[in-house]
Amino acid sequence: MTRALVVDDSHFMRTVISDILEDGGVEVVATAENGVRAVEQVESVEPDVVTMDVEMPEMNGIEAVEEIMDRQPTPVLMVSALTTEDAEASLEAMQKGAIDTFAKPGGTISTELSGHSEELVAAVERVAAADPTAGHDVDMEPAASPETATEYVNNPTLLIGASTGGPNVVESILASLPREADFRVLVVQHMPDQFTTRFADRLDSASEYDISEAEDGSRIGGGEGLVAAGDYHMRVSGYSNGRLRVRLDQSERRHSVRPAIDVTFESAAERVTDPLVGVVLTGMGSDGADGIRAVKEAGGTTLAQDEATSAVFGIPERAIETGCVDEVLPADRLTEGIADSVRRST
């Protein structure tokens, strides 16, 4: 049985979350009202997973995650309100080592959380299965130094799909992606809908590429990228002269998620006539396997993150099992592999 520590400054929320987890088969071994107590309890009871509030007195959730990862790495699920501030804080906590985030419906003190019991229990179990030391502090060098004369193929498109543990790896890839390669970039990260705008902003700040959250009808060319909006599938609906267009829809979830990696990858494989590179990263489940197959069948290059650097190896492993992955690489070599795949032969 999974053993959880519940951290929240609200006694009401600690009780609600604990009851939901206990009813879902998760043993709550302790609770804490702030980050200081959370760090102490992690060392005392050694839980399998921590649910962590963001805003707390004495020590907030970001600081607590950093302390936990320094002292006793443990999988952490950020449980935050659906606000811009909490979305930004949760993304920062994931940079510090948290595995994933779960958005409280209805605000900081959520009376609606009980209606999302199954999703919360599933998120806790998913995070508990993750390796808290994998994929963090990824240090990537640019794939090509400015002194290196490199020629790339015309009009390449890069597709990136990720889930649990993915935000740090996605950010690292885009931060080191050579601008001169002139990719069109599409990112599908399983993430609550209020968080994808902030995630796109973070990627834009970290990268030389212009990254934004996708809107229905968005068009991009070389040096630009889109992040799939939370709760919307992102489909490539058109491609011409090196520019692609996407449509967003709320059609049926696939693999119980929306956006789905498969939807974006398959539509890109169908529409894009120039070079394609498909990359699947850490995460639980099988989303992305069919998409990788489609990219490979369309003549594209396919890469997967390796097990050692994946917080959860499910998505890459399912893709590898298709036999359609060209190369399996650690997180810090993925950008190099992406760039190599579109370099011109000399």
TrEMBL record:
Recorded GO MF terms: phosphorelay response regulator activity; protein-glutamate methylesterase activity; protein-glutamine glutaminase activity
Chain ranges of the Response regulatory domain: 3-119
Cellular component annotations (GO), alphabetically ordered: cytoplasm
Keywords, in A-Z order: Chemotaxis, Cytoplasm, Hydrolase, Phosphoprotein
Subcellular locations according to the entry: Cytoplasm
Residue ranges of every copy of the CheB-type methylesterase domain listed in the record: 151-345
EC number assigned by the record: 3.1.1.61, 3.5.1.44
Signal peptide: none
Keyword Signal: no
Main location (coarse class): cytoplasm
Example GO biological process: chemotaxis
PTM annotation (4-aspartylphosphate): residues: 53
This protein's record includes keyword Cytoplasm: yes
Protein task: Involved in chemotaxis. Part of a chemotaxis signal transduction system that modulates chemotaxis in response to various stimuli. Catalyzes the demethylation of specific methylglutamate residues introduced into the chemoreceptors (methyl-accepting chemotaxis proteins or MCP) by CheR. Also mediates the irreversible deamidation of specific glutamine residues to glutamic acid.
NCBIfam families per record: PRK00742.1
UniProt similarity note: Belongs to the CheB family.
Protein name as annotated: Protein-glutamate methylesterase/protein-glutamine glutaminase
The organism of origin for this protein: Halobacterium jilantaiense
